[in-house]
């Protein structure tokens, strides 16, 4: 069924020059604000969505000038609806309608019009008729010197797949009628993109890219409200885009994102995320192409330095003042961390237990100080140990994240860092054989033997952040693009005062695990945490242990306040899982939560009470390859924490 | 297929005593907070949702005592899942599982357990097997002295309709296995409730009530996140409940609402809305029953005084100080309102044009003054002319809205009032023949001839309010219950900075029209309005006119600043509607927006610029029975207003 025209040669031609574009409907603001932000983000092309033109107080020629002033090419005008499958009378009227749009396009200075497959309930289901009428469209387009791009909407009345649309376009056989592709319309229907590669690239007039979370809902509603930037959703977009590249298509890759959140989000930041999401997609597409073909060299896809193959937590750095340092140090002491070093030139202290390292930074007039002034006691930096710190920084900077340099004392290490979406720092650290480690270079170590096992904590299992709702997808993109992390599907967790959206990101070897939480509602613990921090904040650090019973016994004896779990939880656990009475008793006695996966992997975990109404510590033991985070227990923990908060509030007022 | 057992007599028995109940999952908070709020709202029964028990730090007996202290009966424990359609081995385990739940129920002091139809992918599709196994359930329940209530989930693997569930329950034929009904599971599938009336009422063990907006999505997701209180959604619940009453069912009517918004909303206010939504449902059910049967007298359904048959705007009252009064008075003057009276004892002025009346209240130490202190220039009261003000107040008070009385001077009228969800007042006014009108009684009228036609404004067409998102559904319930208004379906309108949810409510004779708007995002005009007002606020008043061309010509000449509409809008209008070039020119010349309905009804409207960044005036002319609000033009208006705001901001900084 696929093409009657010759396919391109096996070594597909280059996508050159690659134009990265975005539809104006994807971001918030007035048309003037949108064009400025799109240009600033690095795009070179823009699709003008008709409504943006209608609302604009100026002529199409004014829009053309405005775009040109920003260095943007208007690569498409869209959409034109319900052209084909109509009566003869209606066709005549449609031709008149489309001619007016061609006039607008001439004024706008664009030669491409998106024409969507008909959705009219009375659209006639007759391919021969559709071919005739699309032929009329092509004729009118030829007279006007423009190109129409025919797109199968996933909810099109008669034409809903790109294969069907291509059949019609191919039959018309005119350079003025091309095929338009949109990843959403293909992937939302679980359609496969494999036939795209065999469509001649020059017959594809336009390619739109959108991601989306997998959802069980009406495809039109899904498309209109829940699309997101590539990498933020669940679609296999690199595979889709690889097929497009293989076809020989040389036009723009353009984001067309209908997203309720983006409509209300800051214009410039959203545009910036859009641009880096396209870069990430290109990088992944390049990897995809490299798998089955070594002829990717010619494709001008963005190819950043590779993500770190092995990344792990080097240390977590907290911004503190003297009082906050005392509170945190006291908790660390009870968790049997030892004070391992003092910074050579700054008021910075290092604590260690197993491979876990915590840095408390009270240096005046520093980045940490500024962070403390703004956010209070907070996680101001994470250091990640990687194979090549310079490459990691280059990769991050290539995706548009801001590199950062702080003051460095004599003989201290210069550490590369990049700013995360909340302005906190991510350091990239590599250690070379025979050279002093970062800790040796920068700290006077009080425990020169290095990390010996002094207690039950092995290291950092994961870090959990509470985010403002609007920054959730920005963080997903940051962690995916900078560190090459993968993302689990998002889940909704019930807090007693509302829902919390949660998503885990992790590296291939699980050396790095980050859990992101954003509250849907105003009154949850997660929302309160965000308010307490005046922005994104650490929700908790989970330390891994090989023996959680030993860990909680030791720590409780040392005075660590563990979160109490209700007895009813254990009654229900017994009904859900087969387990010995002794084991159940041991869990109950130590306030341990429990989960088991389908393969029998087990997860035992406990929580401390919350410090400063901000963050708490989790202790986790993974058995038998358990790879989750105890999601079924999250609601139990949140309810227990809500009780703790209520108790604390009562004690304060008494 | 429906019952083998005798149906109840035509004159169905009374629902006595009626127990109004709600499931704990329907509102936010800890279990203790939930029970307190449920009791305070007026409920006498409560369903304990299992998770609320699991998260509770105390025994089931503690929950029983807590509920009893609040005067609440625990009418149900829920849910129990995946009992039937299983292997023999699994059945034995399920019987053990359910026996443990019976133990919990004894401790809780409840005799009813909700058992949901199986959703397990491997559930065996065999009615005979299901009947056998549900028989085992009934036997175990009989031994424990409890009643199980079997419910068909809309997404049940094999049993998804109440008809199917009833067939199984009927076949088991045990008093310990009854049918549970849930309006959502029936109405979400577009199933009809008519067969319910012929099921013997004593075989129905429990009835859950939930409303929901009509949505095109997976029914499970829809159920878990979008249910709402009766009257807030789109289901025909009075019809459903009438069938339940006809069956002779005498148990509780219980709200089971899974709603993401309610999970994050204030506990007490949500519970109060839940209770009044049940009262409204009962009232509507009573009306429904009265239609086809005069034997409703015995049913203990709540029957409030009838809603006003004819209600119309008497006046809108603004809280002002001297400066704000001058600004509003200046605008009213340009709109050719005349100053028609001065209040006899207060610093309150009356303005009139046609039947539209505006009252500006600057009285110190009054309700209006308090409102001004809190909200600034704002709509502090609406007066509605009704047939019987006393009855209207009784109705409102019966639904739990707070009556209000202000100071009254000598010979002035005592006017009944009730507080709306935002604390503003709704006065009920009736005028009796031969007696002084309210205006005559309270004002020294400067224009004693009364309302003569002095300009193009006929009266108030509608009033539009900007609401905090969380109060949207509370307002729907307020307007439906107090005034008996009907609601259109909600629509989403794009503002340049986010989406706005909008819904119109109106009386049968269209004497009263109110449009509610709530912003989904933080940066829209609607969200800014809510912030400017520190709460709910007037967005605009639409005045009706019989000649909008005359109106805008006169008002522009008088210096009213009309909102400018972009030329591109008219180009598009021409493409969408057939209309004469002259007519189109006239629209363009006067910045008039235009809409046409399917029957040819037409809507012409214009807007003033925004006063104090708060509210504006709309002028509307309805032709040929047009019944909408020009929704297709809302986005054009919002974009034009955004430009106006940006211009104003620029001028301020220059």
Automatic annotation (TrEMBL), chains A, B:
GO BP: any one term: 3,4-dihydroxybenzoate biosynthetic process
Involved pathway(s): Aromatic compound metabolism; 3,4-dihydroxybenzoate biosynthesis
Coiled coil: none
InterPro entries xrefs: DSD (IPR043700), Glyas_Bleomycin-R_OHBP_Dase (IPR029068), Glyas_Fos-R_dOase_dom (IPR004360), IolE/XylAMocC-like (IPR050312), VOC_core (IPR037523), Xyl_isomerase-like_sf (IPR036237), Xyl_isomerase-like_TIM-brl (IPR013022)
The enzyme's E.C. designation: 4.2.1.118
Cofactor: a divalent metal cation
Highest taxon of the lineage: Bacteria
One GO molecular-function entry: metal ion binding
Residues that coordinate or bind Mg(2+): 462, 540, 618
Pfam families linked to this entry: AP_endonuc_2, Glyoxalase, Glyoxalase_5
Sequence positions that bind a divalent metal cation: 151, 182, 208, 256
Signal peptide: none
Keyword terms of this UniProt record: Dioxygenase, Lyase, Metal-binding, Oxidoreductase, Pyruvate
Enzyme class name: lyase
SUPFAM superfamilies (alphabetical): Glyoxalase/Bleomycin resistance protein/Dihydroxybiphenyl dioxygenase, Xylose isomerase-like
Domain VOC intervals: 314-431, 459-609
Reaction equations catalysed: 3-dehydroshikimate = 3,4-dihydroxybenzoate + H2O
Function as written in the Swiss-Prot or TrEMBL entry: Catalyzes the conversion of 3-dehydroshikimate to protocatechuate (3,4-dihydroxybenzoate), a common intermediate of quinate and shikimate degradation pathways.
Family recorded in the similarity comment: Belongs to the bacterial two-domain DSD family.
Name listed for the protein in its UniProt record: 3-dehydroshikimate dehydratase
Native source species: Paraburkholderia bannensis
